[in-house]
Amino acid sequence: VQLVESGGGLVQPGGSLRLACVASGFNIDYYDITWFRQAPGKEREGVSCISRNDGTNTYYSDSVKGRFTISRDNAKNTVYLQMNSLKSEDTAVYYCHADQIDEGVRYDYWGQGTQVTVSS
Predict the structure, then answer these.
(1) What whole-number distance in Å separates Cα of residue 63 and Cα of residue 65?
(2) Potential cystine with 50: which of 8, 55, 85, 99 (Cβ 3.0-4.6 Å)?
């Protein structure tokens, strides 16, 4: 059972990246998925999340609203984070987190993270 993030890298300010979070060993359909990020010397913060199943509900932090878009493709067991108009302050390690509560038992998984660096 694991989550694997990919798609990070070095990009210039104003550029775009698309992160992917691929689940293996479990069905991502039934999980709420949240993207977090952690910059050096800062606490981990929630960036965006998408509700389970059809992803009807989404959330974005104020710092990324209007620039980032979260989506899910359950057939590929994958959640994406499209990041546009990137700024230097978006530089961080990005993690995805899968979470569900089933019959009172919580199941949650973290990925290992992918580095995003926004710099000219």
Answers:
(1) 6
(2) 55
pLDDT at 90 over 90: yes
In the block, tokens 């499209």 appear at 82
Residue 54, CB half-sphere, CA atoms under 13 Å: how many? 1
At 42-71, the pLDDT tens digits run: 999 999 999 999 989 999 999 999 999 999
Q: Which tokens go with 113? A: 């993270």
Span 19-29, average pLDDT: 95
User: Around Cβ 118, how many Cβ atoms within 10 Å?
Assistant: 20
User: Buried b vs exposed e over 66-89: b needs ≥16 C-beta within 10 Å?
Assistant: eebbbebebeebbbbbebeebeee
SS3 sequence, 82-102? Answer: EECCCCHHHCEEEEEEEEEEE
DSSP 8-state code for residue 52: S
Q: Is residue 112 classed as helix, strand or coil in its secondary structure?
A: coil
**Residue 28 DSSP code:** G
Question: Among 110, 114, 116, which residue's Cα sits nearest to residue 3?
Answer: 110
